[in-house]
Amino acid sequence: MLMAHVVPAGCQVQVETGRGRVLAAAGLGAGRVAAVAGLLVGRQAHRRLRRVHGPRRNLRALLTSEFHFLPMDLFISKVMPVARGPLKFFNPRNRREGGRENSKITFVTESKGDGGCDVDRMKINSLTINSKKYLSLTVEYIQLALQYKPLNLGQGFPDYYAPENVTNALAAVAKSDNPLMQQYTRGFGHPRLVNAIAKFYSKLINRDLDPNKEVLVTAGAYEALYSSLQGHTNLGDEWIIIEPFFDCYVPMVQSAGGIPRYIALKPKSTSGTVTSGDWVFDRKEMESLFNEKTKGIIINTPHNPIGKVFTLDELQFIANLTKKWNVLVISDEVYEHIVYEPYKHIRIATLPGMYERTITIGSAGKTFSVTGWKIGWAYGPANLLYNLQVVHQNSVYTCTTPTQEAVAIGFELEMERLEQPDCYFRSLAMELLPKRDYMAKFLREVGMVPTIPEGGYFMLANWSALENKVKLHEETDENKDYRFTKWMTKNVGLQGIPPTAFYGPEHKTLAEDYVRYCFIKKDENLKAAAKILKKWVS
Ligand SMILES: Cc1ncc(COP(=O)(O)O)c(C=O)c1O
Ligand SMILES: *[C@@H]1O[C@H](CO)[C@@H](O)[C@H](O)[C@H]1NC(C)=O
Ligand SMILES: *[C@@H]1O[C@H](CO)[C@@H](O)[C@H](O)[C@H]1NC(C)=O
Ligand SMILES: *[C@@H]1O[C@H](CO)[C@@H](O)[C@H](O)[C@H]1NC(C)=O
C-alpha cells in the first residue's frame, strides 16, 4: 500500500519500523519535487523493495530530524494526499510478523542548503495541492444547479421514491429493539450484510465466497475503488483506463502514485441508430498498452456514461491480456442489474483464471436505488482484498450499521425471488426501459443523435447539429461540451453532464460533441425535459 506525502526539494526521507529497521530511502529528482512516502503491505513488498532500491545497506541515512513518530495505523490515516514524486517506501514484513503495535515510523530528513526542509514546510506543502483543478465535475455542476435551478438530468440517481422494502427495513432498524443496531459494527462489513453479499455472489459466480475474507463493505463503490487503488498501487505502476471513464478513477490512480494509461472507446458509426454496442476499443491498441509496468486494468460494465455492456468476447480478450501479463482487474459493476433485454451482464471474475486476479465492485446505491446511503462493496480473493481492508481500516474503518442492516435485508428479500419478474434486480431495468426509449425519442426529435444504452441509466447524445442555437462564446471553458452544458443550464434550464470530464488529456476532443443525460427520473420530469428542448429548438 502506498502512502503519499509531499516534501520539498532537497529532502531525503526514510522510514523505520519499531525494530529500527530502515525500510527504504531514495533520492529526489531535480527542481521542485515533492516526495512520496509509502508503505506496501503484501507479499511482493520485500522483493520489490530490493528491485527498486537495491540492497538496503546502500541506503544512506542522513541527518535525522524527527518528523513523525506515530503508530503505523495513525500514520496511514493521517498522511494521505497526492503523490507527486520519486520517493517510495515499503514496509516488507511488518504485517506478517504481527508487529503493528510496536511499529513506528520516523521521517528522517536532510537539508541540502536551499533552506532545506523542516516539519512545518512539509505540512504546508502537503496542503497546497488542493487547487480548483482537483475539484470534481460533480462538485462544480451541483453548485451550478443550486444557482440556476435547471431541470437536472445530470447526476445519476432517481428523483422518486426508493423501493419500499429497503426503506421500510431502514425504518424498522431505526426502531429496533436491539440497541446494538445504532452502534459500531464489524469494520470490514456488518456480519448480516457480508453474509448476504457472499451468499448472493456465490450463487452468481458459482464459487463459495468467504464472507469474512472475500467481501469488504465500503462507503459506496467509490471507497471500494479508492481502497483498491490505494491498496494495490506502487509508485510508477500503470493502470489501464478505458475512456470515457467514471471520473474518479484517474485522481485515485494518481493519488496512489500510479500512472493512468488511456484507451478510448470509439463509435463504429455516428449516424442513424447508434447503440452503446457500437462503441468499441481497438484491440491492437489495447494490447500495446500492456507492459512490465502495468499493474492492472479498470473496467466498468455496464458502462457509465455510454451504457455499454461488454461482450463475452471483449472480456475474454481483456482477460487473456491480464493473464499474459499477470496483472489485476478492478471491475466496476455498479450497474450490474440494470441491463436491457437481450443483453446479459457478464462478470469478468467468472472467466477461467480470472477470479484470482479480479476485484469486483458493487453499490447498494445503484442496486437498490438508494445512492444516499453510500454503501458499496468489493469481493475477490482474500489475498487481494487484504490490501483494501488495510486502507479501509485506516480511513473509514466502519460503515454505518443501520444502512448495512437494511441493505442486508434487501438482499435477503430479493435473493428469495431472483427468478420472479418482481425481483427488484429485474424489475428496475423493466421500469427504466420505457424511460430510456422515451428519452432517445425526444432527443432524436430535437435533432440530437443519442447512443442507445444496453445498460445503466445514462444516455450520451451528440448535440452538434444544434450548435448554431447555442451561444458557445458566452462561456469560457476550454471544451465545447462544458460550454454547451453550462450555457444550457443558464439559458434553457436543462442540465446535463459534459462527457470530456471522463477522458484523459489527450482524447477530450473525441467527446466534445456529446452531452450525458440521466433517465432514472420521474416520467413527468422526462416530459418536462422534452418540452424544454422542443420549445428551445422550435
Ligand atoms: C461507474 C460508477 N462507479 C462507481 C460509482 C460510485 O458508486 P457509489 O455511489 O456506490 O459510491 C458510480 C456512481 O455514479 C458510477 O457511476
Ligand atoms: C417486498 O417484499 C415482499 C416479500 O418478499 C414482496 O412480496 C413484495 O412484493 C415486495 N414489495 C415490492 C414493492 O417489491
Ligand atoms: C483467449 O485465449 C484463449 C486461450 O488461449 C483463446 O482460445 C481465445 O480465443 C482467446 N480469446 C480472445 C477473445 O482473444
Ligand atoms: C456528431 O454528429 C455530427 C453530425 O451531426 C458528426 O459530423 C460528428 O462527427 C459527430 N461527432 C462525433 C464525435 O461522433
UniProtKB/TrEMBL annotation:
An example of a GO molecular function for this protein is: kynurenine-oxoglutarate transaminase activity
Name the cofactor(s).
pyridoxal 5'-phosphate
Keywords from the UniProt entry: Aminotransferase, Pyridoxal phosphate, Transferase
Q: In which pathway does it act?
A: Amino-acid degradation; L-kynurenine degradation; kynurenate from L-kynurenine: step 1/2
Q: Which GO terms describe its cellular component?
A: mitochondrion
GO annotation terms (biological process): L-kynurenine catabolic process
Q: Which residues form the Aminotransferase class I/classII large domain?
A: 150-531
Query: Does Transferase show up as a keyword for this record?
Result: yes
Q: Which InterPro entries match?
A: Aminotransferase_I/II_large, Kynurenine-oxoglutarate_AT, PyrdxlP-dep_Trfase, PyrdxlP-dep_Trfase_major, PyrdxlP-dep_Trfase_small
Q: Which Pfam families match?
A: Aminotran_1_2
What is stated as this protein's family in its record? Belongs to the class-I pyridoxal-phosphate-dependent aminotransferase family.
Q: How does it assemble?
A: Homodimer.
Q: What name does UniProt use for this protein?
A: Kynurenine--oxoglutarate transaminase 3
